Amino acid sequence: MLPDRTDKAVGLRARIRVIAAAAIFLAAAAVVVYLTLPPPSLDRSRSASVLVLAADGSILRGFLTADGKWRLPVEPDKVDPLYRRMLIAGEDGRFTSHPGVDPIAVLRAAGQFAISGHIVSGASTLTMQVARLLERHRRSLAAKIGEMGKALALERQLTKEQVLGLYMTLAPFGGNLEGVRAASLAYFGKEPTHLSAAECALLVAIPRSPERLRPDRHPEAARAARDRVLRRMAQAGVISSAALAETLDEQILGIRLAMPFRAPHLARALRNENPAALVHATTIDPLLQQQIEVLLKHEVLTLDPEATLAALVVANRGGRVLAYAGSADFNTAPRRGTLDMARAIRSPGSALKPFIYAMAFDRLIIHPETVLEDRPRHFGDYAPVDFDGRFQGEVTARQALQYSLNVPAVAVLERLGPGRFIAALAAAGVRLHLPEPAAEPGLAVALGGAGIDLADLVRLYAALSNAGEVAPLHYRDADSATRGPPIFGPAAAWYVNDILAGAPPPPGVLPAEVRRGRRLAFKTGTSYGYRDFWAVGYDPEVTIGVWAGRPDGTPIPGGSGRLTAAPVMFKIADLLGAPLSREDTPPPKSVLLVGPSDLPPRLQRLDPRPLARAGSQSGGPKIIYPPDGALIEWRGEELPLEAIGGKRPFHWLVDGKPLPPGPPRRPVYWQPEGIGFAQLTIIDAEGRSARSAVRLSP
Q1: Mind telling me the catalytic residues?
Q2: What is residue 1's predicted lDDT score, i.e. its pLDDT?
Q3: How far apart are CA 209 and CA 226, in angstroms?
C-alpha cells in the first residue's frame, strides 16, 4: 500500500509542477500578447439591430442585423442593478479589480485541475468572454492565450463600464437572440430595467449554454440552471434566504414572445430614408398607437374581406405625428397589409371641397352666406350631379359645404380656377396627382379628379387649425417645428371651421355633448365608383384622418366616407380623451357675421352664368402685371400694377381695400403688408372688373 501512496504523491507533485509551469507560461505568454496584440475589433458590437423608437424611448419596431440577429445595444445603467450584481458574482467576482485576466482564478483553476485531474472551474473573466464574443474562434490553448491577451488589450482601451456594456449587448441567449435586452423582450416581454430576482438569475444562466438552456425549448433545464444561480446568489449574500424561497417557486413562461411591432409601415419608411442610422426616434405616442392598431384590427372585420383601413393622428401645433397606421393588419395577406395606404395616392372624393371654399372665402369670391344654385348644370361638357342624385335648389355656401353638394362646389372652383387651386396647394408642398400629368387641371378636381395620399390630406386639414398655414408633418423627434406657407387667411379658416363643426355626425355616433368627448369639425369623401372612403376630423389640438378601401382599387358597393370611415374616426377621437380646453376659438376681426341680405351686393349671390375665360369682362380691363396665379419673390419693395383695356380712370383694390389713385397713364404702386396670397381687383369707369390672385414669397 505504501508504494502506491508514494507513487500518487509523486505523481501529484509532478502534476502540480507541470500545471504551475503551464500557468507561468500562460501568464508570460499573455503579457507578451498584451504588449504585441491590438485589442479585438469592435465591429461586431456596432453591427446592431436598427431600432425605431416611440416618443418615450420604447421600441416600436426593430430590424434584424445583416447576419440575422436580434442584437440590441444597451447601457449597463439601463439594466436592473440586481442583474449586474448577479452577473459579476456568478461570472467574475473580481471583475472590478483585475486588468482583464484574473490571475487568482487562473491559479485556482490550475490547482483544481492538478488535484482532480479534470477541469473543475474555468478562469474566463467577463472581459475574456467579451473578447471571444467580438472575435469568434475555436477553443484551444493557443486561442485561450490569445483571448487573455485580447482581454488585457481591451481593458487598456475601454473602461469597465464599457466592457460590461459589450457583454450585455453580445452575450448569446439562444437562437438569434444576443444581449440581455433582446432576451428580456423575447422571454419576459419587457425591457430589462425592472426584473425580478428569478428573471435576473435566468439571464445570468442562459449564456453558459444558450441552446441547451433556451426557456422556450428546454424550460425544465432552464429552470434548473436558474435555480442553481439563485442558490449561489443566496450563499454569496446577493439575495436573502427569504427571497430565494420566494423566487424558486416562480414559473418560467416557456415561450418566446414576438419582438415589438408597432407602426411597422412608418418604421420601415424611416429606416429606408436613412439606413445608416441605428436608432430612429419618432414622435409616436406608444399607447395611442397600440390602441389604434387594436381598434383597426377590430373594425376591419366589418368590411370586405380584402379591404383595409389606414389612420393618422397629428398634433396641430408643430405637426407632430402621434399615431400612424398604414393598414389594419400588416401580416394579413388578403388585405395586402404590408402596403402603406397612408402614403398611397387615391381619389379623395369630396374631401378637398373645404379648401376650395376656403380659398374662395379668402379671395372674396363668396361668403358663407352667399347664395349658390344646386341645379342641373353643364360646365362645358362636364355635368356633375349630387351623391344622392337630387338637387336642392338655392342654398347658401355654408349649406352647400355642410351637405357636400357637388354642383355648387364645382361652380365655386370654376370661379376660383382649378389651375390656381392646384398651384396654391403645390406651393405649400401638397401635390395633387392628375390622371394625365401633362393635362390642364379640370373642374373634376372638386369631386376627386386628382389623387392625394392620407398624410397630405391630414396636413391640409391641420392647416384649418393653424390659420391656413400648411406646415410639414414631423415624424422624427429631432425634427424642429416649422411654420408652413398660408394657402388662405385666418378668416377663411374660421369660416370653414365654423361650417364643418356644424355638420351632423354619422349614424350611430352621438353628439360630442352626449359623448363627453371631442367636438370635431369633420368632412368625409367617397371616390367615384365607391373605391375610397375618407373621413378627416379636427379640433384646435389634433387632426384625425381615416381611409378605408381595397388596396387594389376595386369597388366596395354600399360603402361611403360617412358610413365606413367616419365612425372609425370618431372612435379614434374617443381614445384621445377630452380636449385640454373646450372654449370656442373667437372669430378674427375680419370675419363678417351677417345674413345673405346684409352682404355687399357682389357677395350676395354667385352668378351662375358661364365664366368668361379671358380673365375680364368683354371690353373691360385686363391685369397684365402681376398676372393671375403669379408667384412673386418679394423683398419688401413696392410692386407696380399694370392693366390694359377698359375705360379709365381705373380703381385698384387689394383684398377688397382700395388703393390711392396713381398719376394718369402711369402704373399704380402697391406696398404689400407681408408674404402670402393677395387678391387684386381692377374696376374701370363703366364698372367692368378683372381679378388677379398672386402669392408673395420671401
Answers
A1: 91, 350
A2: 45
A3: 12
Q: Are 694 and 630 in contact (CB under 8 A)?
A: yes
Largest Cα separation within the chain, whole Å, is 139
Please answer whether residues 300 and 308 qualify as being in contact, where contact means their C-beta atoms are separated by less than 8 angstroms.
yes
DSSP-assigned beta bridge partners for residue 324? 312
For every residue of 642-660, DSSP letters joined together read: EEEES-SSPEEEETTEEPP
List phi, psi (to 5°) of 513.
-65, -35
Tell me how far CA of residue 50 lies from CA of 233, 321, 471, in angstroms: 35, 21, 29
Rounded CA separation 651/660 (Å): 8
Mind listing the pLDDT tens digit for each residue in 125-170? 999 999 999 987 666 556 666 778 888 989 989 999 999 999 999 9
**199-214 pLDDT per residue, tens:** 999 999 999 999 999 9
With the C-alpha atoms ordered 418, 427, 461, 309, is the resulting torsion angle positive or negative?
A: positive
Distance CA 675, CA 636 (A): 9
Q: How far apart are CA 514 and CA 154, in angstroms?
A: 67
Residue ranges of E strands in 417-531: 521-526
Tell me the three state secondary structure of residue 207.
helix
Distance CA 116, CA 12 (A): 10
Tell me which amino acid residue 608 is.
P
Contact 417, 423 (CB under 8 A): no
pLDDT at 615: 41
Low-confidence ranges of the chain (pLDDT < 50): 1-2, 113-114, 118-121, 612-617
Q: What is the dihedral of CA 421, 424, 426, 430, to 10 degrees?
A: -80
CB 329 within 8 A of CB 297: yes
The dihedral built from the CA positions of residue 55, 58, 60 and 66, taken in this order, carries a sign that is: positive
The confidence score (pLDDT) of residue 440 equals 67
Cell numbers for 196: 425580478
